[in-house]
Specification:
Layout lengths: L1 E5 L2 H18 L4 E4 L6 H12 L9 E4 L1 E3 L10 H8 L11 E2 L8 H14 L5 E4 L21 E4 L2 H7 L13 E4 L2 H5 L3 E6 L5 H9 L17 E6 L9 H10 L7
Parallel strand pairs: 1-10, 2-3, 2-6, 3-5, 6-9, 9-10
Antiparallel strand pairs: 4-8, 7-8
The structure holds 2-amino-2-deoxy-6-O-phosphono-alpha-D-glucopyranose.
2-amino-2-deoxy-6-O-phosphono-alpha-D-glucopyranose (GLP) binds next to helix 5.
Amino acid sequence: MEVVILDSPHQAALLAAESVRALISRQSQAVLGLATGSSPLALYAELIRRHEAGELSFSGVKAFTLDEYVGLPAGHAESYREVIRRELEVHVDFAPDAVQGPNAQAADLAQACAQYENAIIAAGGVDLQILGIGTDGHIAFNEPGSSLNSLTRVKTLTAQTRKDNARFFHDDIDAVPALCLTQGLGTIQRARHLVLLATGEAKAAAVAAMVEGPLSASCPASVLQLHPHATVLLDEAAASSLHNGDYYREVWSAKPKWQGL
Ligand code: GLP
């Protein structure tokens, strides 16, 4: 796992954007994994900026979102499919239907989950998966206790996650759905490169558990310790509970920048 501690959330977004650009320039038909939540928003803004500057085209790129609430009407502003549409998709040049999410409107949710797994495999798998982390250590919506080998399935959100996400629902925790569909930790592990963004003091404990704690379903994000190519981009606040922060800073400052992430 490569841990990069940066001076600001903006720098983390710029590094992640550069990694996406480098991937698409090597592989115009790349497959991206897109996360929601507030952590990747600065990255998406930078990707849009680069697209508008003529530096980046998504015309051959496919993308899969990580997760979706169950129980929101189609097109609800806070459904994750809608968030991705609003924050990224409509501003760049994805082909129609190039971005997919798990179908939380399906009558048979288990079947919709299996279909989603198959769609990711049929697309050749995810090349670069963007991730955030919840304060309880979740990635996508894999809450504590999630099997480290899990695939896309229905999950129940913890009270903590619903409380954290109530800010997107006019601070009304009762408006936050209790159920979701989420790619599993096994699904996420299949992506060829994981890039996790975490900023702010509120993420410090979860980040320390993910990077330096035991590999455990109790901290689902710790599964990144198993991945051969996982990059964790942090600001100083999110890195503030790490024991080996100085070592990670040393490694990064000595790394030849041409290597990328
Ligand atoms: C949400 C999403 C995750 C996201 C996380 C953190 O519930 N399901 O994909 O990474 O929680 O969100 P934020 O970046 O807003 O802190």
